Amino acid sequence: MKRCPNCAATSTAVDWTCQVCGYIPARVEGFLALAPELAQGGAAFQPGAYAELAALESGNFWFRARNQLIVWALRRHFPQMQRYLEIGCGTGYVLAGVAEAYPQSVLTGSEVFSVGLPFAARRVAKAELLQMDARDIPYVEEFDVIGAFDVLEHIEEDEVVLAEMLRALRPGGGIILTVPQHPWLWSRQDEYACHVRRYRVGELRDKVQRAGFRVELGTSFVSLLLPAMLVSRMVQRRTLPDSDPMAELRLPAWLNRTFEMVMGMERWLIQSGVRLPAGGSLLLIARKYKVIE
What is the pTM of this model? Predict the structure, then answer.
């Protein structure tokens, strides 16, 4: 069911026109805007980041390896997924991977900044795309799975977002999340990306459980490369403040291939049941068990 962003009335109608208060959502850059006041971004917004990421993602080891891990986890825990929402879909790189793995599923992608949605539309033509504030998800028991990949660290009110996810999930549905881990890895890249935190070990699990989810999988990744990541962060801290924070994503081809092979070994360990205690990122899957009254 949809929930009106204006009066919170629920409806099973196909469109977003509210039959109770008459609210009709605006459109920004051609996309439905459910939180239009946020669509153009704020002072810390980096509009150029979308184009930069769109150019880098498909060739960079980290994005490629993360996609493979996400798709494996979805197939393992939600093999019958029919309706999927991605929060903060960005340029649509992960959404495209999910679309390929689940060709029969109904996919919805959301992004708070409308400038990212045209990139996602080019990658995943079949998905419904909309501008939305993750702190106010306008659905009730609509989705089998909700994904948020390196999104929660951007939001001060991450527990509000988790509560919204719970309400938007069907009974028995679940969430799949990735977040950056370990505050001691904080770097200029986190600042450039407008992160508000890197998660402490156990922090996300605790918040997810308090929201009303039961955790099914939790593991670090980017674990075997953690020493290289730490060295990169140390170098960044000693360089000039105006140096390029995205430089570590533009690797020589041989090094990029090597890192992708290492990430492949790591994924094999995770698929074999090994749960890695430390790493630059965390993958978590949890299922809804708390009933919303």
Answer: 0.94
